[in-house]
Every structure is written in C-alpha cells, then in structure tokens.
Amino acid sequence: MDKISLDRIQLAHPKVRAELTAILEQAEKALTGEWKPRLTWTLRTFQEQNDLFAQGRTRPGRVVTWARGGDSWHNYGLAVDICLVHISGKMVSFDSVADFDKDGVADWIEVVKIFKSFGWEWGGDWAKPKTDLPHFQKTFGLSIAQAKAKITPKQDYISI
Ligand SMILES: [Zn+2]
Question: How far, in Å, is the centroid of ligand 1 from the Cα of 22?
Fold first, then answer.
C-alpha cells in the first residue's frame, strides 16, 4: 500500500479510515499498469480551508475551492482528493481519461467506481463550474450546516 496515502488516511475521520484503506487496496489492485492511486488530501483544517479559499480571490493563483472554512467536508475529515502516481514515485497525473493499464476503462474512472461502490459521492458528478474530479466525500446524511453545528472546540472529529 502507498505509505503516503496510509498516513493521510490516519488524518481522516475515524469512521472512514478502515473503509478508505479498503478502497485504496481495491484500487491498487484494479490498476494493473504503472500508475497507482494516491490520496493527496484528507483532513483540512478550517484555517487551511480559508487560506485555500483566498487563492485566486484575494491571493494570487487560480481558484481551487468553492468552500470557506467549515463549508468543505474536508474540514471534518470526510472528504478526500486523489491523484495517480507513477510506480517510479516521480510523476503524478490528474488525467481522468487515460487508460494507462489498457483494460478499456480509464484508470481514474476505475478508482471512481470503487469509491462509489462504498457509497462515496464523487465531485466529478457535480455540475460545472463546481465539477471536482479528484474529490470524494461521505456525508452520512448530514448537511454541512449540521456538521458545523456538531463541531466542538475539544473534539477533533464530529460525532456521527
Ligand atoms: Zn476535495
């Protein structure tokens, strides 16, 4: 298993850690070519989210998020972003159409299918301009407002 992804899974909400491990295991097996899935983000603090929101708005760069601190499922450890990483460890890819392992399905979409089979929502299904191909989230039927209301200063992760 990809060590970097495993470390990032430990930052995700405790309720989804085992599942994320299973998803990654399945995805690594499904991609039989030279590219493997990696988690690029799991948990993001409110501050990190606000910094990211500023990018492309009040700070240089391109817009990379539509959510302020508290408005992203990443802020609760219930969202992850992926990329593909070459087995050399030296290249990453965000190509969602390349069929690197030549099995007739884009590698990216193979990973999407596995996430969906575990009940995760894919950002690639969202309407433009919010389409977010690397993003997956699991919300346990909660709205963001409900998640926000559950945050307590002493608790790192909301109760589900
Ligand atoms: Zn994301």
Answer: 19
Ligand 1 centroid, distance to 118 Cα (angstroms): 17
pTM metric for this prediction: 0.94
Q: Residue 121 class from Cβ within 10 Å (0-12 exposed, 13-18 middle, 19+ buried)?
A: middle
List the chain domain ranges: 3-149
Interval between CA 79 and ligand 1 midpoint (Å): 6
Q: pLDDT by residue (tens digit) across 122-142?
A: 999 999 989 999 999 999 999
Comparing C-alpha atoms, which of 154, 160, 156, 148 is closest to residue 42? 156
Report the alpha-carbon distance of residue 97 to residue 41 in Å, rounded. 21
* Class in CATH terms, 3-149: alpha beta
Distance 102 CA to ligand 1 centre (A): 27
User: If you measure from the C-alpha of residue 81 to the centroid of ligand 1, how many angstroms do you get, rounded to a whole number?
Assistant: 5
